[in-house]
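User: Here's a structure from my thesis project, written as structure tokens. My advisor, Dr. K., wants to see whether a designed sequence matches the one we expressed. Can you design one independently, without my sequence as a hint?
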């Protein structure tokens, strides 16, 4: 299929838009003139490809973004009617990319539906649209109601490329549902390889040979003990279980999921629980995986267990201090209570006006501020960055975070570092001038760095110092290096893939060497000929 892109502010979209198209020739002015270039490109593309493939056009159903779910159509319908039967397929999206590409914190499944209702009545050609569809029921409803002919899925098929096949086979419990975190999109924003929180094989199909559904059978009869059932531990257990290993998964708490179970209770974060639920459902199908809840292990317990391989995935906890340019420094007397996101998630909330100091810069600062506003507290979100939640801009959440928080009544203060908290006020310093200011607050929540919970790992290492351990020892996920959830599922999967597999440390990944100099010389030579 060949696409003609007449949306997303690209060149063709600019021709359609009277605000950007100020031409005085036959390509500007009237609606017909502004539509001319798109018409010609569609016609010429169709001529060029003949009957070898279909030509699709991506086109926005609305004219202007305003309130979610309330389309401003303007002249879109008329414009569409001029082109209606030209392409083989219409791919209909909307103007507001923060809604189309919406993160689940702000946008739920099927958000484009209200924009789509008129489209099919104006064309005889099939129509497709998107909307982070992972639920077969929602897809069927869209098709039955006649809003669209086909369901498009970008993120849902990154999270699970086999989504259509699983629906066709009735294996709904096997669907690895996208959680709408937009970590995949951050790869796009940063021009780095795309990662997916739910699908750790994403981007590793070629260079590591990982398949989203298939995994090599076990190489030995080993017993693997995984300690910690957060995203890394759960994914390691699932993938090792699929390989056929005997696996014991020990979790200190009463529930599985670790950080995703806790974070999913925060405002807007409900869909993150899919990271746990998908894996727990898969574990239930694996008789070779035993899960032990309420099982806090000591190094001696681990030794006694008799596993061949031990992998520690005990996660991380938020720190109460703050990282300065070179080191962590305290920001309150030890007797002054300073809270962290872990406290909030575990139910300990401040009782008065609160400063949330966010030097993490991703979603947690904003989410905690929202949680405290829900509890009726007066909240100021302070960040040393020039923008609130700067890293969330890479995922597209940043497009909505400041407006969302302001709408909730959260005060925002950027470019200020945290100097001290005495229980009554927070002293801050401007990042640019160093000038200090104080905010009256009886609560302080620091959203800064996280420290690995690695006591068990270091305890086992200490035992190893007394004599060789009777098992291999590794640590994965946040317990190794606190990072985003996608890094944890990746680490768990990688551990499972690499177990009993010889890894060439000099060349762990498949790669191709291209001599750019030689390629260029060849290209010049060809051009000269
Ligand atoms: C990683 C990633 C890259 C994307 N790149 C493009 C792009 O280059 N052009 C485009 O029109 N849409 C792009 N999109 C947007 C998708 O086409 C789609 O409109 C959007 O993801 C909403 O669909 P979904 O809810 O099924 O994910 C991208 C989406 C993702 C997740
Ligand atoms: S990274 Fe997140 S949003 Fe993107 S496909 Fe995976 S789960 Fe969905």
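Assistant: Designed independently from the structure alone:
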């Amino acid at each position: 299929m060949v696409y003609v892109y007449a949306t997303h502010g690209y060149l063709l979209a600019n021709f359609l838009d009277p605000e950007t198209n100020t031409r005085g020739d036959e390509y500007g002015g009237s609606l017909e003139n502004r539509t001319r270039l798109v018409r010609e490109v569609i016609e010429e593309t169709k001529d060029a490809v003949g009957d070898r493939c279909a030509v699709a056009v991506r086109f926005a159903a609305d004219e202007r973004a305003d309130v979610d779910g309330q389309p401003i159509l303007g002249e879109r319908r008329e414009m569409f009617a001029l082109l209606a039967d030209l392409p083989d397929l219409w791919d209909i999206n909307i103007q507001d990319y923060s809604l189309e590409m919406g993160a689940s914190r702000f946008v739920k499944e099927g958000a484009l539906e209200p924009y789509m209702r008129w489209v099919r009545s104006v064309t005889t050609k099939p129509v497709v649209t998107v909307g982070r569809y992972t639920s077969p029921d929602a897809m069927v409803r869209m098709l039955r109601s006649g809003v669209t002919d086909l369901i498009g899925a970008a993120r849902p098929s990154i999270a699970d490329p086999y989504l259509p096949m699983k629906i066709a086979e009735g294996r709904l419990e096997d669907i690895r549902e996208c959680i709408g975190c937009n970590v995949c999109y951050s790869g796009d924003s940063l021009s780095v390889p795309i990662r997916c929180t739910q699908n750790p094989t994403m981007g590793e199909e070629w260079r590591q040979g990982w398949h989203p559904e298939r995994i090599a059978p076990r190489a030995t009869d080993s017993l693997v003990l995984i300690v910690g059932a957060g995203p890394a531990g759960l994914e390691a257990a699932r993938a090792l279980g699929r390989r056929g290993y005997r696996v014991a998964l020990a979790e200190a708490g009463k529930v599985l999921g670790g950080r995703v179970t806790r974070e999913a209770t925060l405002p807007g974060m409900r869909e993150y629980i899919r990271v746990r639920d998908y894996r727990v459902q898969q574990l239930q199908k694996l008789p070779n995986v035993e899960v032990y809840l309420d099982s806090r292990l000591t190094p001696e317990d681990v030794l006694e267990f008799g596993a061949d391989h031990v992998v520690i995935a005990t996660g991380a906890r938020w720190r109460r201090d703050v990282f300065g340019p070179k080191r962590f420094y305290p920001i309150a007397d030890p007797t002054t209570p300073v809270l962290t996101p872990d406290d909030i998630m575990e139910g300990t909330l401040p009782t008065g006006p609160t400063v949330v100091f966010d030097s993490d810069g991703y979603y947690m600062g904003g989410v905690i501020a929202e949680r405290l506003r829900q509890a009726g507290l007066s909240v100021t979100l302070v960040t040393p960055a020039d923008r609130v939640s700067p890293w969330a801009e890479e995922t597209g959440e940043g497009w909505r975070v400041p407006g969302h928080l302001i709408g909730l009544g959260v005060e925002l203060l950027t470019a200020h570092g945290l100097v001290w908290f005495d229980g009554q006020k927070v002293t801050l310093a401007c990042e640019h001038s160093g000038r200090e200011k104080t905010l009256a607050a009886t609560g302080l929540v620091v959203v800064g760095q996280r420290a690995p919970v690695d006591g068990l790992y270091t305890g086992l290492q200490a035992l190893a110092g007394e004599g060789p351990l009777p098992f291999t020892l590794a640590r994965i996920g946040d317990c190794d290096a606190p990072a985003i959830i996608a890094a944890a599922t990746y680490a768990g999967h990688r551990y499972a893939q690499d177990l009993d597999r010889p890894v060439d440390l000099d060349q762990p990944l498949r790669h191709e060497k291209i001599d750019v100099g030689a390629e260029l010389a060849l290209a010049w030579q060809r051009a000269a000929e």
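When you compare it with your expressed construct, this may help: The first helix runs from residue 11 to 16.
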